Amino acid sequence: MTDLSTTCPTTPHDHHAAVTTRRATPADAADVAVMVAEIAAHEDQAAHVHVQEEQWRRLLARPEVIVLLAEHSGGPVGYVSAVRQLHLWTGGDVVNLDDLYVRPGHRDAGVGRQLMATLAGLAKPEQLLIRWSMEVDNADAQRFYRRLGAGLRHKVLAAWPPTAYAEAAAAVPPGGV
């Protein structure tokens, strides 16, 4: 596995301690679960989070699940999460970024940029495309990603939950796929 540890200069709150980034392990499940709940609450999506600490422990052991933690003074201050998966058009893998989150009090100090740079370092050896989506009205995120050099394009993201596709799936005979 590639060494992902990086160090960034200080945050505005403590000029003596640096922010470090590293890949989360199953032992980090509690911290990851708490921060996922924080970002979901921030986005008014808390009702949609169903992964608890024990399941995070299992997920963080999977090689395709990428969660990079940013730490300051020994505590987590942010994370970026992604999943490596096959892209059928290219026949190669891509990294699908899920969340980039920096806790209040540590924003605007380079932590998000450092997390993204660490993710880029993970993707670089194989020249993997990193892709993600964001809300159309999230101008701050769009500005941040443009400053990183990301290209933005408008696309409609669809989600088809089981309750919505149940009728269509019922029409397929058992074993019919």
Domain module tally: 1
Low-pLDDT stretches: 9-15
Largest sheet: 6 strands, mixed
CATH homologous superfamily identity: Gcn5-related N-acetyltransferase (GNAT)
CATH architecture: 3-Layer(aba) Sandwich
Structure summary, number of beta strands: 6
Order of strands side by side in the largest beta sheet?
A: 1-2-3-4-5-6
User: How far is it from the N-terminal to the C-terminal residue, by CA?
Assistant: 37 Å
**CATH C-level category:** Alpha Beta
Q: What is the CA-based Rg, rounded?
A: 18 Å
In terms of DSSP E residues, the strand content is: 25-35%
The number of helical elements comes to 5
Average pLDDT: 88
Give the helix/strand class: alpha+beta
CATH fold call: Aminopeptidase
Helix and strand element order: EEHHEEEHEHH
Shape: globular
What helical percentage do the residues reach? 25-40%
What report would you give on this structure?
The protein is α+β, with helices and mostly antiparallel strands and 177 residues long. The chain has one domain: Gcn5-related N-acetyltransferase (GNAT) (Aminopeptidase), CATH 3.40.630.30. Helix content is 30%, strand content 29%. The protein has a six-stranded mixed sheet with strand order 1-2-3-4-5-6, with helices on both faces. The relative contact order is 0.14.
Q: How would you summarize this macromolecular structure in one to three sentences?
A:
This protein is an alpha+beta fold. The protein has five helices and six strands.
